Amino acid sequence: MMCTLRAPAGPRACSSMRSSSRAASLAVLLLAGSALAEDSAQAPPASEEMIVTSESLIARRRQAVINNLKALGYRKKKTEDGRTTYSPTIPWKPTVIVDDDAYIILKRTPVRIDPPGERGSKLRYLWCLPPFTITKACIQTSGMTVGTRKLAHAKETVVRATHPELRRWRAAVIAKAMDKRVNTEVPDLLDDIWERGLPAGEDGPRLLDPAERRAAILQLWSSRSCTPEGAKVRTVVADFVRYEVQASDTPASTEEIAQANAANPCDDKLPPAAPGQLDGPVQSE
């Protein structure tokens, strides 16, 4: 803001105007900040579905499991076919196999070459040169000879240490798979049934008649399980029925909708067909 000195106001008046201007600006900023805070408070929380299906969250939850294994003294040995093997520092403890589908397998640690010394040092393998090749300093066999009870206790320790993180990782993997099914696989399946007459299963005759295609889609809707996952699939199918099937030249009749609702064991219901709009085609006499 530009202040022009004019008599008789003088410098004091100009200074006062600057102070008033700064005060007004501060008030505006405070009001804007308050409005932003209020909008933030009223904004709905982020969708849990969007969070759990992100690749980054799955990676973080998997890493939490790995970190717990490392804290127990495990180190990565190899990765093959979607499974990563972790070997224990103490030879008799169980080997842990981490599958990318969010579960672990515990098994006896096989006989292995594990000479003493600091890990990462190639000199430690001098213990495996003749005549020490078959000595305990080179070949570790305790994983195969440890008692069943002692091994079971070690397995239980691994399970307790990884269970919470493993459960959260598995939930994220399942949610991502469900998200893919709801947003991609089910719509593609419905298109195949309705547009091309392909059966819902891998086997079965082609659906040539519109009535057969409607029946297949309505059966897909009514046969979903009464679970949150099943409800998501039913919602997708219901939207397809409403916006594709019922908007076509061969919509489902009120009777067909009623039969689908009767076959559904859950509380969800397809809306009845609107007379004159959603009823099946009227056959001329």
- Name of the CATH first level of the domain at 48-108 and 146-176: Alpha Beta
Order of helices and strands: HHHEEEEEEHHHHH
CATH fold node name of the domain at 48-108 and 146-176:
TATA-Binding Protein
Our Rg estimate from Cα atoms comes to 34 Å
Q: Structural class, please? A: alpha+beta
Number of helical stretches of at least 4 residues: 8
Mean pLDDT across residues:
78
What does this entry look like structurally?
This protein has helices spanning 10-42, 48-52, 55-71, 142-145, 148-196, 210-222, 228-245, 254-263, and strands at residues 74-80, 83-88, 95-99, 103-107, 112-113, 139-140. With 285 residues, it is α+β, with helices and mostly antiparallel strands. Among the domains are: 48-108 and 146-176, 2-Layer Sandwich (TATA-Binding Protein), CATH 3.30.310; 114-144, no CATH class; 197-263, no CATH class. A hairpin with a 2-residue loop joins strand 1 (74-80) and strand 2 (83-88). Helix 3 (55-71) runs antiparallel to helix 5 (148-196) and helix 6 packs parallel to helix 8. It starts with 9 loop residues before the first helix and ends in a 22-residue tail after the last helix. 19% of the residues are buried.
Please describe the topology of this protein:
Layout: H1 10-42, H2 48-52, H3 55-71, E1 74-80, E2 83-88, E3 95-99, E4 103-107, E5 112-113, E6 139-140, H4 142-145, H5 148-196, H6 210-222, H7 228-245, H8 254-263
Helix pairs in contact: 3-5, 5-7, 6-7, 6-8
